[in-house]
Amino acid sequence: MHILSKILLAFLPDDLESIFKFALLFIVVPALLIALLFAGPITAAEKIPLINTEQVKMYIYTANKVSDSTKNKYSQRIQIDWRQLVAIDAVRFQQDFSKANPAEIEKLAKMFIKKVDEVEEIEGEFPNQVVKKYEVYKLRSLDEVLSLLNFSTAEKEKVKEFIEFDFSLLLNSAANLPDNWAAVEKNFKWPVPGVYRITSGFGPRVDPVYGTMGFHSGVDIAAPTGKIVIAAADGEVGYAGWNGGYGNVIYITHNGGYETRYAHLSRIAVKKWQKVKAGDIIGYVGSTGKSTGPHLHFEIRINGQAVDPLGFYR
Ligand SMILES: [Zn+2]
After folding, report:
1. Model's pTM, two decimal places?
2. 254: CATH
3. CA distance 314 to 296
4. Residue 221 C-alpha to ligand 1 middle, in angstroms?
5. When you count CB atoms within 10 A of the terminal residue's CB, does the N or C end of the chain come out lower?
6. What residue intervals traverse the membrane (predicted)?
7. Of 124, 142, 165, the domain-final residue
8. 185 plus 266 within the same structural domain
9. In this structure, are 142 and 66 located in the same domain?
């Protein structure tokens, strides 16, 4: 007899009850576990648009461009919800967002605006008068657009499921960091020593305060109020004080066109024009300005342009 069969037979029990237990342990349980393992991700993936940040930006940009085109003297700006565009395309393209292109997105976005009126106005002085036409627009509802697209009931349901998805998760690049991530300090020191919990990454995101789409120009480092904040590099304080949504904020200018910003501070420990060294305490974590809880909003700018700070610490 084959050696493998011998081994298997040796493990095979002889009475019926044991055979049942054997089957349960080695066949039914693993089968169930495997089924559970795959069922979860599959159902989850069906409701999550498989779209990357660059593609999302394309939708946000196009939705805003078309929205801007609706504003004139007689028509107010019609805001098109980019999330509805993504949800529709998730169904249309069956999640394959490589098929998305700006021209198609624009066509879809335009379906959401409906011309309801046209106003003619004579402008200028005689004899140089011209007739100017202004179109007045209205926003179409998602249902109206889905019907225009001839979506089936099942497809309409799917679109609505996609919209339920919390896009902030998708747009939050912080989610891409491993759990035990720690900053690697090269040219810049980490502004909150020893605290590496990023609650919001750099890039487009759903505004946590207003729920609207915005661009997050820095990273949010969650830390308790009063934790020290240090200068990331040698430089000079360009601004120290209150600045709107930033709350109490410090700007430090560095060599090479670099600037770092530290926002929502509970207390500022430096003054404008003060020279600082990397690692100097400049302030303390807080929740001032537009903030939902104590954290440091940290930015790195190059010639005024905000860049992803994490790029300097990996
Ligand atoms: Zn922030």
Report:
1. 0.52
2. 2.70.70.10
3. 19
4. 8
5. N
6. 20-39
7. 165
8. yes
9. yes
Examine residue 127 and say whether the peptide bond preceding it is cis (omega within 30 degrees of 0): yes
Ligand 1 centre and the CA of 27: distance in Å? Answer: 51
Task: Report the length, in residues, of the chain.
Answer: 314
Q: Does 11 map to a domain?
A: no
Q: Is residue 270 part of a domain?
A: yes
88 CA to centre of ligand 1 in angstroms: 30
Pair 288, 264: CB distance under 8 Å: yes
Q: What percent of the chain has pLDDT over 70?
A: 78
Ligand 1 centroid distance, CA of 171 (Å):
14
- pLDDT tens digit string along 98-138? 889 999 999 999 999 999 999 999 888 888 889 999 999 99
Distance, CA 197 to ligand 1 centroid (Å)?
Answer: 13
Q: In angstroms, what is the span from residue 268 Cα to ligand 1's centroid?
A: 18
The CA-atom distances, in angstroms, between 140 and each of 56, 71, 92, 164 are 22, 16, 19, 19
d(Cα 202, Cα 180) in Å, to the nearest integer? 19
Provide the residue range defining the domain that includes 120.
53-165
Q: How far is the CA of 272 from the centre of ligand 1 (A)?
A: 22
User: In total, how many domains does the chain have?
Assistant: 2
Q: How far does the centroid of ligand 1 lie from the alpha carbon of residue 265, in Å?
A: 12
CA distance 290 to 54: 26
Distance 200 CA to ligand 1 centre (A): 7
The answer to whether 171 touches 54, Cβ cutoff 8 Å, is no
